[in-house]
Design a protein that fits this description.
It contains 17 helices and 22 strands. The chain is an alpha+beta fold. Among the domains are: about 90 residues, OB fold (Dihydrolipoamide Acetyltransferase, E2P) (Beta Barrel); about 120 residues, Gyrase A, domain 2 (2-Layer Sandwich), CATH 3.30.1360. Helix 4 packs across helix 6, helix 4 crosses helix 16 and helix 14 packs antiparallel against helix 15. It is globular. The termini are far apart.
Length: about 575
Amino acid sequence: MYRTHNCGELNIGNVGIEVKLSGWVQKSRDLGGMTFVDLRDRYGITQLVFNMESEAELCGQARKLGREYVIQVEGVVAERSNKNKKIATGEIEILAKTLKVLNASETPPFTIEKDSDGGDELRMKYRYLDLRREEVRKNLELRHRMSIEIRNYMSGEGFMEVETPVLIKSTPEGARDFVVPSRMNPGQFYALPQSPQTFKQLMMVAGFDKYFQIVKCFRDEDLRADRQPEFTQIDCEMSFVERDDVLDAFEGLSNHLFKAIKGIEIEGRYPKMPYDEALRRYGNDKPDIRFGMEISELKEEVSGKGFVVFDSVEYVGAICAEGCAEYSRKQLDRLTDFVKKPQIGAKGLVYVKCNADGTFKSSVDKFYSQEDLKLWADKMDAKPGDLLLILAGDTGPTQKALSELRLEMGRALGYMDTDEFKPLWIVDFPLLEWNEDTQRFHAMHHPFTSPYEEDIELFTTDPGKVRAIAYDLVINGVEIGGGSIRIHNKDLQKKMFDNLGFTEEEAENQFGFLMNAFRYGAPPHGGIAFGFDRWVAIFAGLDSIRDVIAFPKNNSGRDVMIDSPSKIVQEQLDELFLDVKDIDK
């Protein structure tokens, strides 16, 4: 046997026993007549001691060990004189009697420590080395624990896990599909599923009234911190339910994870906030409610004073940063540069300082009197010492920019405590959204989302005002999951397809199998899908889901470790009846 114990389990109660350990050399230290080696495995670190006086030859071998050598050691557990309270094994050490090098290692391209000197791209290229770092390993251990808790909870609530196909039909609506050519069906393609949406609805038609699955999904879209081309969902569906039945069920799952993983009891029911209210108060549909600093609309208060910037725009909004009136010109310029970034898109920033003596200082003083500025401050409940930050423009983009500015101030002022969690439901989304490029409506969620019954008549008069029975779970400003009550009536589904601009032939070609299923007694049903990677990242206190995925892609969608995607040989292309264009041309 290579080991009797792992490197994280020995303690003061094991003193005197003979053990055998195997692992990787974390580091070694030569101190005259003694050599100390930190041996690491998945479970922890144990200190090895090689004594030049009693084991000169063995100590000489130990001094030749390099970082990341794989070794096996036999020895006796002894109490350490200089204890290390930072590690679980810090009270003991192993007095080495034998040493065997199982595999030598080249010098790693970066240090395998908590604060590694390797950049993101280098660590992704050598991901198998990065995974040896304790911080990364803990993320995957957290992911593992969460998956077990989810499966146990869902099974206990009567849900059945069912695997759905990975090679499916392409339905080009929403994000781009990844497509897979079929050798046995020349000229035809599978798609990798963006989600198991239609299959879980078919499970409801089949009578499996409680389905879930922890499943891989694929979307060919531009990447950012919370997106990967392949990601994992907790996919769920229920029959004979209304909206609040679904919310109750998955609030239960959420509360269970908070308690089991974080030891946190969430008090009371999660608040519900309509989509329109979220935009008005926070500027986006996934508000971080750990702190206030809500948006106030000031268009009426600022108009008619000769300041053309405010007079000529559709919307003027502001946030109040508590205690920030002492911001310097340099700090205000930095905020102005922030809101003028292309991804935020504001033209500029107006500020009002609420001075301690009750007066006001603003970047638009020549247009507005002290009384005018006091009116703004009163509307926003600002106090002496506060700072008003004001943006103007078209409503949607300006609310979005104010949202980004609010989050930036929240970060700067320390309002985003990673140990505090504030979940809420966003509800009553628009069913449809207009796309200027295609000049037609698109489904805000997907084509199977049910409208409120009282809004159905708006399909013929004002489709943009139809509300969806849809809901998102948001935690600390991150959309953890979303779902809806589904359409289960084929006539209403046809009306939905009509408003999305589908011809009868297109609807039949893409979704005929689902429409046919509805002819045979589809129950009322609804569900939700959670971003498993995002949920793990939030519990780990991380901004990027990449850090909780074993082998992630970079921002260009490449796996730099295995150099994928890559070209395939001509023989494979010929088998698939494919020609590849010359990209350079």
